[in-house]
Amino acid sequence: MTALADLLGSNLVRTVLLGAALLGAISGMLGAFAVLRRQSLLGDALAHAALPGVCLGFLIAGARDLGSIMAGAFFTGALAALAMMLITRATRLKTDAALGIVLSVFFAIGVVLLTHLQAQGGAASAGLASFLFGQAAALLRSDLWIMGGVGLVALALVLGLWKEFKLVSFDADFARAQGFPVLVLEGILTVMVAMAIVVGLQLVGVVLMVALLIAPAAAARQWTRSLGAMVALSAAFGAASGMGGALISASVRGLATGPVVVLIATAVVVVSILLAPGRGVLWQARAARRARAQISDRRLLATLQGLAHAHDDAAYPVEQGMIGTALGAQPPATQLAKLERRGLIRPVTHPPETTPHWELTGKGHAAAAAPETDREAPQ
């Protein structure tokens, strides 16, 4: 607790912590719509397209001015989004191909400009490379106001156009048929994603920004089926990842904040994929195991009932070997014991034979005769 208090006592740590939380919340909120629209690569393309804008902003300002750099990044990001839309509408190329072209071309231009500026020398251009992977230590209080403003604008747009965004995200063709301006709505969503990327350049950088957009949304998607809950949970995951990464990088010397934030967000995705109720891998494996056990139990009960009907005796004692012959394999002792505990079968003796025999109870006959949907799942 003392170490944490000492960390939070630093103005720089508090600034980075708040900035990371704001950026994570904004990215998580907007990333949810990108994931639902199956445009996860869009964030990657816009993030990489911001690099030439960073260099252009530096050239225009003549110095490492954050306002000019962010304006340049937003301009080239918007230009990349426009280029992608033109490619998909003017050619037969699909969206993923257009995104791949835009991403590679704009990032290549950015690398060329960055290399040229660094070759020119000068202290001002020395820090431009930090925009590739972010530099949280350079975050200023004034930057928090920009992040907060972008966050409020994004939140206002999401709340104001909630119904429209929801319809476009789930069924754009239906929205178009209903007369909604789908192109405008998609443009607004794209611009908001570009704004989130621009404000995240300083903290995470162009290379890792896409992870902060997509990872919280991908994790939230595993836990809920409601759009509202997904957006809120994605924003919470993003904010928590940002704060966790900021605290860890501040407490361990030499750790960059951006990569740590991304690693935490990735860990949240892994945990969600494994453990989320209903959709988690382990949950589904457990459900599949229970379904197999249920099918096996039904086969055993149906076998006992079929033999009872064949002998015209509801209490016909079936020798355990007969059950194995009918099923093709001997039922495990644990399965028989489980069905006995549930009151579906009971062990009986059948003199002069000494081998185990089983018969259906009244409850067992009812379970065996019940339709598939009415049968009780195994406990």
UniProtKB/TrEMBL annotation:
Q: Indicate the transmembrane segments per the record.
A: 12-36, 45-63, 69-87, 99-117, 123-140, 145-162, 182-215, 227-248, 260-282
Q: Could you tell me the superkingdom of the organism this chain comes from?
A: Bacteria
Key word Ion transport present in the record?
Answer: no
**Coiled coil regions in record:** none
Q: For this chain's UniProt record, which GO biological process terms are given? A: cellular response to iron ion; response to zinc ion; transmembrane transport
Entry GO CC: ATP-binding cassette (ABC) transporter complex
Q: Which InterPro entries match?
A: ABC_BtuC-like, ABC_TroCD
Q: What is this protein called?
A: Metal ABC transporter permease
Organism source for this protein?
Rhabdonatronobacter sediminivivens
